[in-house]
Amino acid sequence: MTMKQMMKRIIPTTAWVGLRNLKGRLCGARAEGAQSKRFKRWYSRDESTDKTRVETRLAFDIHRLEKGLSHVGFRDGFGKGVLAEISKRMVLLEKADSNYEKNPLYLQGLAVLHEYQHRHEEDGYDLSEAKCLFPARIWEAAHEYRPEDSVEAGSFVMNSSSKKDNLSRGFVDLAEHRYSVREYSSEPVPQELLDKVYEVSMKTPSVCNRQATRVYQITDPGKVAEALEIQGGFKGYAVPPVLLLVTSDIRAFMNNGERNEPFVDGGLFSMSLLYALEAYGLAACPLNAMFSLDQDRRTRELLDIPDYEFPVMYIAVGNFPESVPVCRSTRRLPESIITRI
User: What pTM was computed for the model?
Assistant: First the structure.
């Protein structure tokens, strides 16, 4: 008889279960602490100077500039704070990467700055203030840069006519031509179309088929506006016709070891939603739900979200306008992310 079997005979069942639960809680607390410490060690800080974390910050700011360039209400002179950040990160990347001239993020920085310069020069806008934010070598390299010869960044105009046959397209074609769209036509989104989207998305895999994902469909303009005001990441755009909030029901999970699974399953379901929306010819844009405690409380009160659900993400939805500028959002090459073992 093993020691464990002997102890089970001696210790009452209730006490044994209590000890096992205590062990589970202690192990869970240790795992949470280790996970939190690892994140704090490695996330990209403003003062980071190593290549990967500088690239992280640069990618973030390039996308911020792309959003301004893709805005229907393009405003000359926008983004001086973002330009200063891009300049700072490009200089840091020159120091962190000896081969920076071929670095995809560095080239994206030149490409997005090239479009910024070109758009303002077309409007006859004086860029001397923006120019002062950059070392002369970077500003001039961006001016001479030709995105079509290398990496692209910035914006381009998408036409709704290109989406009419989406439902008959293959998955690869559909995925390669999906872009986030933040501005929509005034035409209402038919509920029957959304219902088809939900039906397709229900095929999303989930841990042990527990299907914990929930979706809040918000169509009241006032509530959509208030939800996005709390979220804070959709400023400067008109209220979308539909706003979806994806959440995950914590009651579907069984131990602390599954604490990240609500976000994994919710993320999988959200991507299915985005592809299904694209297939049915609807424009969409994923938006984060990285709430502070105050944002979480206010969102729960506004949408009547129970305590046992985690918010995962928002998705803004509408019909494509006749044409709309969108961010290029250039992706990495596959070989840059694959480790073959």
Answer: 0.92
